[in-house]
Amino acid sequence: MTNWALIIYCGLITYLTRFSMIALIKKEMFNDRIREILSFVPSAIFPAIIFPAIFINDKGLFQVDDNPKIIAAIIAMIIGIFTRSIIATIFSGLASYWFLIFVV
Amino acid sequence: MQSNFKIFLKGIIDVSPLMIPVVPFGLIFGVLSIDIGFSPIETMGMSLIIFGGASQIVLLQLFSGGASSLVIISSVGAVNSRHLLYGAVVSEHLSDLKLVWKIIISYFLIDQAFAISNEYLKKNNNSNRYFHLVGGGVTCWIIWQSTTILGIILGAAIPEKLGLSFAVPLTFLALLVNDFRKFVNVIVIIISGLVATLGYNYIPFKAYVIVSAVAGLFTAILLTKIIKKK
Questions:
Q1: Which residues in chain A have their CB less than 8 angstroms from residue B212's CB?
Q2: B11-40 b/e with 16+ CB inside 10 Å = b?
Q3: Which residue in A48, A77, A102, B122 is a FRET match for B86, CA 20 to 30 A apart?
Q4: Are A17 and B83 in contact (CB under 8 A)?
Q5: What's the gap in Å between the CA of A24 and the closest CA on chain B?
Q6: Global confidence as pTM
Q7: B169 lies in a domain?
């Protein structure tokens, strides 16, 4: 397969995942219970992106020792809980990560 | 009722804090793609046609690892399956729209725009509230395309040691700040995160993303049911 064909197929499948539900689901299908469950979607999906990015290293291995990302993520989380600010969370995480790899 | 443009602007303002980490993410993508051997035009093509950070990084990772096209396409599909859930969540607010609008908005249904507009759409009832989602999506589109170009141009001038890729999980962490205070959400977060970490190397085609999301949602269904019975 050429690179362009690969890119176009990946684009198509990405678009279809975005479009299919918007196209198929009707408003009448919703009720309070479904709304309640769907409100957990961010909590159910985002950790699947967060956790491996923190705990799995470049070689694809689980790494807890000598892993500044864990400490930085915990600091960011605590700041996030107290400030409820998206910017404060991101900056405190990056700042503590840089502090840990460059200063400590 | 607020004008379409005002709601569009509100979407831009609401999404802008989330754009800060998109900048390094886009740069990294551009740099990596050239490094792996894609041409500048192919790299731009990915950002324009796919327009999804996680999917594009997965594509690069697997491509550089010599994976077959079928594996790459199905992995991109698996990583993107989260959009099915986003679509399900926002479809309630878009169901009265014309098909043309649904086709356009679908292109902009990305993590960041979904995260901020989901809150807005729930709280507002005006019929033009979807302009918020368009505002967030278009903003992210502009940032993503321009940082891809920058990454292509700057190339190796950006030191890898800065660890800018860490900005990606931080963005998603920041999107959960309100959920850390709710008991059921915290359990769902832990379950989903554990399944993803443990399954990362064992669930094929990067399907760990959707497997852990489904595990998290089942946890939510169970826990909310138990709590209601009490």
A1: 44-45, 47-48
A2: bbebbbbbbbbbbbbbbbbbbbbbeeebee
A3: A77
A4: yes
A5: 8
A6: 0.79
A7: no
Q: Which two tokens stand for residue B99?
A: 């098909």
Q: Which residues of B touch A3 (CB under 8 A)?
A: 38, 42
What is the value of ipTM here, to two decimals?
0.89
State whether B106 and B215 are in the same domain: no
Same domain, B138 and B186: no
Q: Is B120 on the interface with A (CB under 8 A)?
A: no
Please tell me the least confidently modeled range out of A67-76, B124-133, B218-227: B124-133
Reduce the DSSP state of residue B94 to 3 states and report it.
helix
Domain span at residue B121 reads 4-164
Q: How far from chain centre, in Å, is Cα A53?
A: 9
The domain boundary residue, chosen from B111, B135, B164: B164
Q: What is the pLDDT of residues B72-127, one digit of tens each?
A: 898 888 888 889 989 998 998 998 899 999 999 999 999 899 989 998 998 998 88
Domain count, chain B: 2
Q: Nearest CA of chain B to the CA of A65: how many Å?
A: 16
Return the residue of A nearest to B174 by Cα: A86
d(CA B72, nearest CA chain A) in Å: 8
